[in-house]
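Input set for joint prediction.
Command: fold jointly, output tokens.
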Amino acid sequence: MKMTRSQIIEYLRDPRSEKGLWKRADETRGKYCGNTVHLRGLIEFSNVCSRNCLYCGLRRDNRKIKRYRMDRRQILRFAGEIAAAGIPTVILQSGDDPSYRTGTLCGIISAIKRAYPFLAVTLSAGERPLADYRAFKESGADRYLLKHETVNPGLYARMRPGCDFKRRRAILEYLRKTGYEVGAGTIVGLPGQRLEDLAGDILFMKSLKVDMAGIGPFIPHKDTPLKSCPPGDLGLTLRVLALARVVLKDANLPATTALATLDGRKGQILGLGAGANVLMPNFTPALYRKQYTIYNRKKFVGMREVLKTIALAGRIPDLNTPGAALILHRVQP
Ligand code: SAH
Ligand code: SF4
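tokens >
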């Protein structure tokens, strides 16, 4: 059944509809995605950022964090750990860090693919010249995650000074055309965001036919201009997630780390019950992880936590056979 914009807004407005909505999302997830939870091993390879998003602790003007950049050798090592753990996908995420030249990133991608041919490579490195996305694809990248953040152009421009929504959308369309599996997504609870905007976010992702949608609550960071703003609401975030599942049907929807940060005990379990089918265990080493402070009190979600969450939710992790992982691990990059 199709959902109209006004029906979506009604669901978003009314927490009493929640249980029924979660059930419907869970059924849709079961029908289109089955019971397995897909795992994506996350490497946060640089916290250097040339942009100044009001919400994010990695913003250029935050002088309080120590910046780091991983080199090719380090990235390959952590990709090897992900392959060895039997995880089928690596996500390489960073600030918008232009110091990684096109050729450097291409070299890293192709080296990962050579060493671990069964590993899908997802990039999440922000906005770059369009030609870069093509070059990354030709080097073997499979997917690109670029959250559109908010579909409201005015709010987008306020939150991301110097950036504009039209460009974000154009990049997402280009990624699609270039043959990537494309991920978009939204931050729920940005100051000034309306329910209409969130409904627009869901419909935007539908029109883009996204393969993934990252939906997480806003969490303030103490060294940003939004430090005194309240965090996004857990219930509202889960309603957006559930509605995204009902509308997007077979898209991959992570139960985000931001959900775990909002409610450490059950945030992600609730997410898995409200339509999510993906978790992203973090493989960034502790030293760097501490500096990758997009928001405060970011919860560490590693492989152990992920497997526990999946078991508690009564679902099955999607892992390569350990034997295959061991053989792959022996291949030297
Ligand atoms: N620089 C890249 C990728 C790294 S940021 C980019 O911006 O696309 C990854 C994601 O973190 C962003 O897409 C944004 O949605 C999320 N994020 C940043 N600050 C946040 C905050 N305070 N609360 C919740 N999510 C946040
Ligand atoms: Fe940089 Fe991404 Fe954070 Fe914006 S959200 S400041 S682009 S890391």
